[in-house]
Structures are given as C-alpha cells and as structure tokens.
Amino acid sequence: MPKNYPIEVRVFAVQRKKEGHTWERVAEMVRQHFGLDSVPSRRQMSKWMAKTSVSDVVFDRVGRELPKDVTQMFTGQRDTMAKIFAEMMTGKDSRILIMKWMFSQMKAEFGAQLLTAAWAEFTEEEARLEKDGNATSDKIGTSKGIVREEGERSQQ
Fold first, then answer.
1. Which of 64, 89, 107, 136 is least enclosed by beta carbons within 10 angstroms?
2. Half-sphere exposure of 113 (CA within 13 A, CB side)
C-alpha cells in the first residue's frame, strides 16, 4: 500500500517535475528537502502530476482553512496565489511573498521606471523623517507622517 505524503511533499514534487527534472531527480530532491527515508514512487508522483495541478492542490487545502469570501477574492489570481501559498508552505515569509506580488502588480500597471521612482522617493522621505524625529509630512505615502498626523489629531 502506498504511503500517504503530506501536501507539502506533493506540491514540492509537482513543482520540481514542472521545472523539468526527471522523476529520479525529483525523488532525490524530496528526500533531501524533507529528510525522508522513503520517498514517493515514480508511479505515485506521476499520479499526483496527472490528477492535480499545484494550484488545485494548494487551493483545496486553503479552501478548507480559510473563510469562503477570502478564497473567492483570490480566484481571479488563482495560479499566482497558489504559488504564493505553496511557497508559504515551504517556510518562506508570507509578508515578503505578498509584498513581492503587490510590487509585480504595480510594475505591470505603472511600469518599472515609475515604481522605482516612487520607491526611491518614499525611502528618501522616510530617511528624512527618521533624522528629524519631530517632523511631520504632508505627503501621501509615508508611514511615520501618517501616524504622526493621526496622533496629532487625537491629541487635539
């Protein structure tokens, strides 16, 4: 009877096969990555590959763990979100993964040059605010300026 492997192992194997690795190499990668003594057979892994895509496997698990309205919100970005969730399952920081996705969306919408210019302006203004602890900013997009303005309003 074949052993049941966790979702993380199945997602990892499917991703590696889609990257073009042989089944033997995928099995070795699974062994190394998860520290397993016994690895899934070629037949098992090929069934995983045939039955499901990475996004199906991930969304099946996510769908059981998140409220319905949240999963509906992600359906338009299904493949992208599946990749993010799959990487989260391997231990990567979800905040960084989501920020990278947001940056890619902004880059696609506004272009790399504008995104880079906006980021440079944001970081320069943050640095100025950091130097002058009492300064407030009237510009949009600086976290410290926004916090200070809200704090000043609540004190009045």
1. 64
2. 0
Distant-in-sequence, close-in-space partners of 146: CB < 8 Å, separation ≥ 6: 137
Alpha carbon distance 97, 81 (integer Å): 10
d(CA 62, CA 13): 18
Contact 91, 53 (CB under 8 A): no
Number of H helices, E strands in the chain: 9, 0
Q: What is the pTM of this model?
A: 0.39
Number of Cβ within a 10 Å radius of residue 142:
21
| Mean pLDDT for the chain overall | 75
Q: Is the dihedral of CA 85, 63, 18, 11 positive or negative?
A: positive
Tell me the per-residue pLDDT of 21-49, one tens digit each, with 9 for 90 and over: 898 999 999 999 989 888 888 888 888 77
Q: What is the gyration radius of the CA atoms in the chain, in angstroms?
A: 22
